[in-house]
Amino acid sequence: MGRDGRGVKAASQSSIEITFTYKGARCRERIALQPTPANLKRAEHHRSAIMHAIATDSFDYTATFPNSNNAAKFADQRGDVELIESYLEAWLKRQKPHLKASGWDGYRKIVDGKLIPWFGKLKVSELKKKHMREKLQESTASNKTLANIQSVMRKALDDAINDELIDINPLANWCFSKIEPPKEEDEIDPFSKDEQAIILEQLTGQARNLIQFAFWTGMRTSELVALDWGDIDFVRSVVRVTRALTQKSKEAESTKTAAGRRDIKLLQPAVDALKLQKQHTWLRGAEVFQNPQTGQRWTGDQSIRKTLWTWALKRGGVRYRKPYQTRHTYASMMLSAGEHPMWVAKQMGHKDWTMIARVYGRWMPDADATAGNKAVGVFARSPSELLSNATV
Fold this sequence. Notes:
DNA binding; elongated; 3-stranded antiparallel sheet; DNA polymerase, domain 1; Integrase_catalytic; 3 domains; mainly alpha; 49% helix; DNA-binding
């Protein structure tokens, strides 16, 4: 009654044994059918379906043979046992030494706030594109946020491959996005010359020095609060930016990009602010700017807003914008005055000027009637030279 050579044979009076190879191992499984000719034929079809599933990497051992010892063995080798929740928690801990504090905190928020609530009870091997697509379709977040969520999950699954929990990453080379309406306006909202003057009039001492310096250097808030007196070169009149201090980091970290490490030319209003600031923190030789309420280094944007920024704008009747707009104000002032976009880009820590042109293009002056004349004067031949060449 057996069908040797076809991977199917009678095992007992009430069962049939199926033999196949899975992940390099020879597997034998029994199905509860009497080994009649019809049932043996049926078992052959079942084995063929198993072989096809193995070939197309869609075979689920546990689902096909839930009571098999082999299922447990192969589950230990794959992500058929470990839940996404436990894997992500362990994975997140492993990432901490390799990420900046702000970057790791962003990962943590996505893992704890989205991925674990969405997929935590699934096994690692069970996650498919459709699961991610369904959750992202329901979300009201922007495409940028959706991309960040997918990026974190994709990186975790890449590591799950290295951990031999899964063979392929279901999110590889795939990214979900929604059709978004055109943005009404970007977030570039600089302060006018009069608004700057009003804000500074409301402030005194260290608070005024900080904001004036911010307006005239274009430094990010995280860079301003990390600034030490050792970063100031009064001889060359530059400030060296190498570090940033975010809300989540306990100490200053290197700038996010290589272009972010830069020398910023100190314009006179920035120099004036530093000279006045010397009487407050120069002798300590550490941080340039301090929170006047604590006598310690600022901890970030939030403490500046609460301590002096919101109060100054409200008292001066200036429409509220975040402190980061001092950076955009600097860019708009430089470009409106006709400074070269590449120079502005380097001052602000961008590797090229394409972003400057894209974001701040409306502050670049249009060409005037004399535009191009300098090039003509330097490179064009004189009328007499042109005439003599034409008559040769």
